[in-house]
Predict the structure.
Amino acid sequence: MSDDVTLKQSSTVYSNPYLEVEDRTYSHDGREYRYVVAKQPEFSVVGAVTKEGKILMMRQFRPGPGHFTHELPAGMVDPGDTPEETARKELLEETGYTGRIEAVTTAYVMAYSTAKRHIFLAHDCEKIAEPEEDPGVIGEPFLLDPQDFAGLLRSGDMLDLDAALILAARLGIPVF
């Protein structure tokens, strides 16, 4: 099989500031393939641990699932910002904490999206401010002990599970 894949046609079927949906047709080895692709921005996710060994989390309402979920601090990479700057900024804005940021990896979110998730760890975090109020967010930060974090990962009520599993592995927290 050749690696020669050509984009033949692309048209936008939906667009808002956070999501653009494209209908794309590619050709490969004489055949055409049609896909619907979500064009989304890159974002940074931060697995953060306090100096006391607690894990910083967010409890936030998410409209897709239609209920509160648990997740790590995260946010879209704004134009002109680096993924690391975004990680540092989102950690402070969402939780009021700051720490030493370490880049871990970058991965695509899914096969039918252009979004990339930049995963960071923040070590030795300490609270220096109150979380910022965001009129578009229903949520709050909270702290977890490592054993409770492992239970949360097994619960099925966690967004950004890949980033959370990386944090657990880096901290030596057995999950399964």
